């Protein structure tokens, strides 16, 4: 099994955490998706990370990869999410997409953060963090984190990594506590974003 990643991609981090939590052996291939490396394009014509190649199956999109891993490797399955956990996962993932829009927008327009679309994306992240903080997904120590836990922590860590304590990033003590708790686990700690 091969997983194409970027060291700063929150979407790749979701899959990296899942693979480690499930104990699935895999090879991580670090790529620069902006350079469109041939091996990544062979795996997925979109050139996006993460891209998983397993036994002739190639999948790119973190949530679809998560579904594939649950189906193909059910031995260490995630708990079946409640309706509330599904809503939390969707909210956190939507904010991750807004986060990615800002990062991509910055590559094409230096003032993207202050442009109307950038401001809307930033507002979406801020609102999502506040809502998630008000109803933080819980995690029972010793159990496998839920997908809602994983996506929420990945979102918060990505925001902290790229935006630090920017004036618009809300105070989210409940999310910080969840992040601190889960970042003690090796799958989380070993996949924290770093600039290569």
UniProtKB/TrEMBL annotation:
Pfam families: GST_N_3
InterPro entries tied to this protein: Glutathione_S-Trfase_N, GST_Omega/HSP26
Coiled coil: none
Domain GST N-terminal residues, every copy: 1-77
Superkingdom of this protein's organism: Bacteria
Descriptive protein name: Glutathione S-transferase N-terminal domain-containing protein
Organism: Pseudomonas fakonensis
